[in-house]
Amino acid sequence: MSLFILDKDLLPEYSLLDSGNGKRLEKFGQFILSRPDPQALWKLHLPESEWKKASATFKEGGNSQDRWFKGSVPQKWLMRYKDITFYCKLTPFKHTGVFPEQAIHWDWMERLITARVKSGNKPQILNLFAYTGIASLVATKAGARVTHVDASRPAIGWAKENQSASQLDLQGIRWILDDCLKFIHREFKRGVKYDGIILDPPSFGHGPNGERWEFETHFPKLMDACKNLLSAKPLFLIVNAYAISASHLMLENVLKDVFSGFGGGIEAGELVLKEETNHRLLSTGIFARWSREA
């Protein structure tokens, strides 16, 4: 099994301080957050006194009773990845709009895009289920033209806030509020091609007009459609998955189908965080990625 562990140097403003008893203790910028994690079934390492230092704690009460209990945490605050600046917020879904483990991908694709730009080509990148858009910002900063697609108007608004915070060219990203499957089918009909594709499909979801998304049903169709959008010399494809009943082998096998005949290579595994104190590992999700240079 391949474990891809976040290097602290990639995202120094984030730390996994402790985990266990069904929760994790993390530092996002200057704030310490405690939130549930159903995979953390082991014992805590730090004493309870350290957990009480949390600036905000997410409590699960069932349905609408889930909520953050916060002290001095503002509505939003800034974090940084290299030259990219973005906002964290406490959402009703227990996350902050930042998935630290994905910095592993940001660094990887940044290097690929930079190399392509230096060769004289400006790659076209498609970011699907793009949410708060940190990957879109990284790709834009590296010199790519980015199409950012999400079905949530508030998420796109948040991503635009991040773009502004990073002081990136407002013309560098094309913003699309749409169902991802519908959008890529239209792009295929228009003959549009992309050099790189980033996908973060949820386990369940809905489009802006109530379109239903179920990972097991729609993911194979999504990948078939994405294959039709690849340019003659594609650069990369990344797919992440969270909270699904499958291993990274499923993602790897799907990518093998998609990239049969393209050459290059595929990496797949788990995205992993390492505790700052005792270096215990916490898996957060699975991924597979292809690149021509692999």
From TrEMBL:
<protein>
    <recommendedName>
        <fullName>S-adenosylmethionine-dependent methyltransferase domain-containing protein</fullName>
    </recommendedName>
</protein>
<feature type="domain" description="S-adenosylmethionine-dependent methyltransferase">
    <location>
        <begin position="63"/>
        <end position="249"/>
    </location>
</feature>
<dbReference type="InterPro" id="IPR019614">
    <property type="entry name" value="SAM-dep_methyl-trfase"/>
</dbReference>
<dbReference type="InterPro" id="IPR013780">
    <property type="entry name" value="Glyco_hydro_b"/>
</dbReference>
<keyword id="KW-0489">Methyltransferase</keyword>
<keyword id="KW-0808">Transferase</keyword>
<dbReference type="InterPro" id="IPR029063">
    <property type="entry name" value="SAM-dependent_MTases_sf"/>
</dbReference>
<dbReference type="GO" id="GO:0008168">
    <property type="term" value="F:methyltransferase activity"/>
</dbReference>
<keyword id="KW-0949">S-adenosyl-L-methionine</keyword>
<dbReference type="GO" id="GO:0032259">
    <property type="term" value="P:methylation"/>
</dbReference>
<dbReference type="Pfam" id="PF10672">
    <property type="entry name" value="Methyltrans_SAM"/>
</dbReference>
